Amino acid sequence: MKTVMIVAGESSGELYGSLLARAVKARWPDVRLVGIGGERMRDSGVEILSGIASSFGITELLLSLKRVRETFNTAEKALTELSPGVVVLIDYPDFNFRLARIAKKRGLKVLYYVSPQVWAWRRGRVKTMGEIADRVAVILPFEEEIYKGAGIPCEFVGHPIMEEIEQYEEEARKSGAGSREPKVGSRNPLIALLPGSRPHELRTLLPVFIGLVRTLRRELPDCRFVIPLAPNIELERFDEFLTMLRQEGAELRKGGATEALASSDMAVIASGTASLQAALLGVPMVVVYKLSPITYFLGKKVLKVPYISLVNIISGREVVPELIQRKASVGNIMKHCKKILYDDNYRNSMVLSFGKIREGFFGKRPSVSVAGMIGEMAGWGRREDEVLSGKH
User: Fold this and answer.
1) Both 175 and 97 in a single domain?
2) What does the mean pLDDT of the chain come to?
3) Within its chain, how far is the Cα of 61 from the centroid?
4) What integer pLDDT is reported at residue 59 of this predicted model?
5) What is the DSSP string of 254-277?
6) Residues of the chain predicted below pLDDT 70
7) Is there a single domain that holds both residue 138 and residue 205?
8) Of the candidates 86, 74, 68, 61, which has an alpha carbon nearest to the alpha carbon of residue 3?
9) In sequence order, which residues have a C-beta less than 8 Å from that of residue 195 and are 6 or more positions away?
10) How far is CA 291 from the centre of its chain?
11) Distance between CA atoms of 267 and 275, rounded to whole angstroms?
């Protein structure tokens, strides 16, 4: 029986895994998909062996170490018992690098999908990737050159977020919903607040968002707020904060970040995939982030890039404001929100830069391309994207 194992460690990777699962099933309906993930992967036909157990940073890792270990043991056991034709590992390097070594020892094919941020820190992982992966599929345009320069089989396939956005936009056109019509400058803008998906992000940013909502409401009584929360978040852990946000009138949703952003006039976003998602949708934003003091201190020592948001990293300059640690205060965020809402030149310049970023991802079909790689590696046939383009 055709079997593929997909391992995602956190919410964004789990989204990519779900999109990939659909593409694989569309090409090979009889394939068995198993893996580590969450609700979206399950809904896309993946047998979930264990749920996501992500961690980030030193203190956060210690808090979730037991759960991560249990998940790893489950994944290792599945490699032995199921012997999948291809093991697809999505980002999450501290977990997936170890799992990849075990897969290679068992003679299994390893496809690494979504590179760890070797361009930002721990460049030595490029060499490690060459040892553990048969092929690498990257989602940022500048990553391909890094791996090919090291002699590692690698391909830039595009970003799955763009895939989801194009699907949303197509459905919106068919339904007659049309495109977002910004109401910037009005008294009732819709502001999206995205606090991230990792527990430490929610613990540090939700209190800030509560203060931000209260303060903005005083100045703009009719402004509205929408907070799309990652589907895999354990909401009960943050019930106190979420209840306060509801009491302030914020609309909380489980999932639906694309829809929430597409209907918003601006956003305040935890640094991560969501910032790129907003840029590809053309939504002006403020990027915020907070870490535990020790994680931030150590991170500053090893970080090799001047920015934390993908928008600025891809652009090579500051397109969106980044407020980190103490700078991520209600007052500072307010200042940048008002600039976006009421400074036409500033806002338009930001959106124009977003359009240039989008051009680099347009027309790519990452899930189809990666599904094709899986088929090639497993010996199931030619890649679908090559068939569709007429390549022989």
Assistant:
1) no
2) 88
3) 19
4) 44
5) ES-HHHHHHT-SEEEEESSHHHHH
6) 53-64, 119-122, 177-187, 292-305, 382-392
7) no
8) 86
9) 201, 202, 205, 206, 209, 227, 229, 270
10) 18
11) 9
Place of tokens 């652009």: 315
Same domain (yes/no): 154, 242: no
CB atoms within 10 A of CB 15: 30
CA distances to 45, 202, 321 from 23, rounded to whole Å, are: 11, 32, 36
User: 373 with 350, same domain?
Assistant: no
Looking at the structure, tell me whether residues 142 and 211 fall in a common domain. Answer: no
* Cα of 58 vs its chain's centroid, Å: 21
- CA atoms of 368 and 361, how far apart (whole Å): 14
Lookup: tokens for 213: 């909502």
Give me the CATH number covering residue 116.
3.40.50.2000
Question: Does 354 lie in the same domain as 285?
Answer: yes
Range of the domain at 91: 3-158+364-389
Is this structure's pTM higher than 0.70? yes
Q: What is the pLDDT of residues 303-314, one digit of tens each?
A: 566 888 999 999
Which pLDDT score is estimated for 66? 78
What's the number of domains the chain is made of? 2
Kindly report the backbone phi and psi dihedral angles of residue 386, in degrees, each rounded to the nearest multiple of 5, phi listed first: -75, -40
- Cβ contacts of residue 130 below 8 Å, gap of 6+? 147, 150, 151, 152
Same domain, 321 and 372: no
Side chain identity at residue 336, one-letter code: H
Cα torsion 247, 340, 307, 139 to 10°: value is: 80
